[in-house]
Amino acid sequence: MYNRFFQAAGFYSAELPGGMKTIKKDLDMKRIVIAFTTLLLLVSCAPKPETTAPENPAVAVPENPASAAVDRDAEWWVERHREILDRRETNPGLILVGDSIFHSLDNEDRQEVWTKYLDQYQTVNMGISGDRTENVIWRLQNGLLENINPRLAVILIGTNNTDGNHFLSISTPDELSEASGKFARS
User: Fold this and answer.
1) 116 phi and psi angles, rounded to 5 deg
2) What is the spatial distance between Cα 100 and Cα 12, in angstroms, rounded to a whole number?
3) Is the distance from CB of 51 to CB of 63 less than 8 angstroms?
């Protein structure tokens, strides 16, 4: 019974070395074209997000939240931002701008990374845990790069914009791309 079902669906039985049997699918071009066309149709018919005007016209909603400048309402975050601004006094050769991935480099168990790789470049760690692109853009607009001229900046940001488990909104790849353009212009 199963053999007839699989044969009708385009599958066929093949014998493997040692007498074992397997079931394979004969993919012909016609089936590939039909599958691809169906997938394309489904993707193109997906609902597009609509942008609506805010209920209160005095409050402007940015078209792309990932490229807006937004600070975080947390005392520890403001304190970390101030600490980073104080570290800039050293006129670093390398800056690390980003989220918890860089912020965690300040943990005691990462001292060897600093000693072996980062100290030689007068590196300043500008990472803040939980930052999204909009938070880094705010920091860029609020003194992060003032009066310094690093030879190299490494930016690692956007991971938290795609995290639907810890944040209410998720950014699209296009929104993140636009936000990246703001970093390049800073």
Assistant:
1) -80, -35
2) 52
3) yes
Strands 11-15 and 21-25: antiparallel
What is the token pair recorded at 25? 């699918």
Secondary structure of residue 11 in the 3-state scheme: strand
Provide the 10 A C-beta neighbour count for residue 172: 13
Q: Looking at residue 95, what DSSP letter applies?
A: E
- Give 97-156 pLDDT, tens digit per residue: 999 999 999 999 999 999 999 999 999 999 999 999 999 999 999 999 998 999 999 999
Instruction: Determine phi and psi for 139, rounding to 5 degrees.
Output: -65, -40
- Alpha-carbon distance 98 to 179, whole Å? 13
46 has pLDDT over 50:
no
H or E stretch covering 110: none
Query: Which residues 6+ apart lie within 8 Å of 78 measured at CB?
Result: 71, 72
Orientation of helix 173-185 relative to helix 133-141, angle to 10°: 20
Question: Which one-letter amino acid corresponds to residue 119?
Answer: D
pLDDT confidence tier of residue 167, bands split at 50, 70 and 90: confident
Question: Over the stretch 48-100, which tens digit does the pLDDT of each residue have?
Answer: 455 444 555 566 655 788 888 899 989 999 999 999 999 887 779 999 999 99
Q: Is the pTM of this model over 0.90?
A: no
